[in-house]
Amino acid sequence: MGDSTITKVYLDNAATTPLLPEVLEAMLPYFGEAFGNPSCLHDWGDRAREAIDAARDQVAQLIGAAPEEIMFTGSGTESNNLAIKGLALAQQNKGKHVVTSAIEHFSVLHSARTLEKWGFELTEVPVDRYGVVDPEDVRRSIRKDTVLVSVMHANSEVGTIEPIAEIARVTREKGVVFHTDAVATAGTIPVDVRELGVDSLSLAGNQFYGPKGVGALWVRKGVRLIPLLDGGVQEGGRRAGTENVPGIVGLGKAAELAARHMVTRIEHVNHLRDRLLIELPARVERMVVTGHTEHRLPGNASFCVEFIEGESVLMMLNSRGIAVTSGSACTSKALKASHVLLAMGLPHELAQGSILFSVGIANTDEEIDYVVDAMPSIVDRLRQMSPLYSKFTRTSKGGKHAGL
Amino acid sequence: MGDSTITKVYLDNAATTPLLPEVLEAMLPYFGEAFGNPSCLHDWGDRAREAIDAARDQVAQLIGAAPEEIMFTGSGTESNNLAIKGLALAQQNKGKHVVTSAIEHFSVLHSARTLEKWGFELTEVPVDRYGVVDPEDVRRSIRKDTVLVSVMHANSEVGTIEPIAEIARVTREKGVVFHTDAVATAGTIPVDVRELGVDSLSLAGNQFYGPKGVGALWVRKGVRLIPLLDGGVQEGGRRAGTENVPGIVGLGKAAELAARHMVTRIEHVNHLRDRLLIELPARVERMVVTGHTEHRLPGNASFCVEFIEGESVLMMLNSRGIAVTSGSACTSKALKASHVLLAMGLPHELAQGSILFSVGIANTDEEIDYVVDAMPSIVDRLRQMSPLYSKFTRTSKGGKHAGL
Q: Interface pTM (ipTM) of the complex?
């Protein structure tokens, strides 16, 4: 690697992905002469409305939905808030109990906590050491007054893909509305709302090379939802506010490209991710893989490095031009151990050493070489400074996966 | 006008304004190599975070606020929802009564209606025939359990600017939190939160040549607010979700340009607007100005045309390439008479003939010529078809302002 010209390696695609040039190209007219407000009845409005309709078709196609079931929002977080609060409030006469998994994104978990303040009860079903929810745990958690179950399609921190179709069989049998947060999966792996059997599904454009500031929520026709944002009649009266036309157009284009190139994208990032999953623990002592080994997001290479803080690894990698995350993007400033890893039963001191490399379609083998070369010396240096490490050298034991 | 080459005239700047090329220019890097997630701790995150901080400064400067008091949202509608619901819920232990004016935007009125469903009581203070709220009416409406007053800075349908500073003197005296919806004014006329004396103020980027999909809410330091969107710790924990970095950068740039060019912009649109306000009623029989003649938004030329539907005028103007609105953008598809005009005491049949020309900085004298030339024949043709008109010809009376 001595003659390498690599200086910047972005391996934080779970936090956000770069926008594809084709997506920006599709958006640009709507920053230009096609700037109209879709609610207006004149030609400028018509053109903007037609663009939104086309994007709605593209997003619907990506997830096997009907276009009229798609609502555009301002983020995956808004989609999850709208789903959790909107679906629960719409059914509160039936009951006030909701179920989530323990490893949901905070936009789901904290929305559920808000429901608790509004008089709802919340059950968090556990996960196993690989981060997998057991559908039977969901079954046991459902009560007569349960009105909503929410389990994410995949966890972006550890990459584990959940058995959503199996959970949906339980919720359908019990007659309970089932939302899945598919922010980590929609546009990345095949997602079909009918095959999954869910009632509601959220996604975000910036997770698959589309723009920030736009998300979508799919809700099965006939399922009631109380809006979060009141005002005008946009999005069928379920999400008021002037539509972010360029953002929506970008989300649509990104969805179209994701559907078209999904297979080759998955192959590409899987290959690079597997290199990280295999080569890093082979080179770095006491660096273990977290999450499920098989049912795993294509780009996700998540680890815990024992006896050092993930934050320190992040900082050292950054000084070499490499971008990664410790914990999730939304909490990385909080310097707390990930609730996901703790729910998987990892001890606190191991969870603090979490580090996530998330591979994207723009990454290359040369970049992976660069990262694999950089890691051992970084970890060595940090361990020299760590009081925990000298303790470890006296009590060493083996194991390459955190679940072992 | 025989040799005019004008074929398209956009006079619907109240619905949304075209994006300035300089604003798009400022946004483009954040659709490109500076695509990072501001919550991330590496260089990509740093660059995005710095951009947001700079935009926060720009928006703060526009309205005389401290940067840390500015929250970015997804729209003016979201800002109003967050203010009305968030400020009321934060104080519900103190009381459950809120006050709005009768002519608020639906994002305020419908949020207040949602509060009613949550057990709050709502008082809507009336307006006079010019759409002006009397501060003494606000005083009379405030009770011991009043926790929030919301009166808009200006009404975009009829252009009337409200006596916000006077109302704020009342609310401060009474110790009640005061929100103002400044979506129609911020970036258009001078807005200074300290001079206005309010506690909370909302604005939207697409109202002053910035992008759609981004708004802001200013809340005075120390005033409590319950978030609408739960999740990560973005925006000081008060608005979760990955930030729309390019949108926020665009809003900041638009704010900077608005502050710098405000005086010349106002002169330009005032001149063109005054031409419409004077020349149209001079040419078109029974076409009356609505809203306040003096305390009026620069670009607003709103009318009611008697004996015909505003929608029909809109359609006919559109066929000549002219974009206008009848009623507000968010309700124009609803074909109902504007709640604003009805609250001003206009009879239903007159309110149905509402038509709004909203002038922007890109409009020209030649365009106004074109519109002034087009209107009389359009109205004539429509009146030929109207059964109401033949009745009118038997009962004609004078008057050039709807308030007369």
A: 0.94
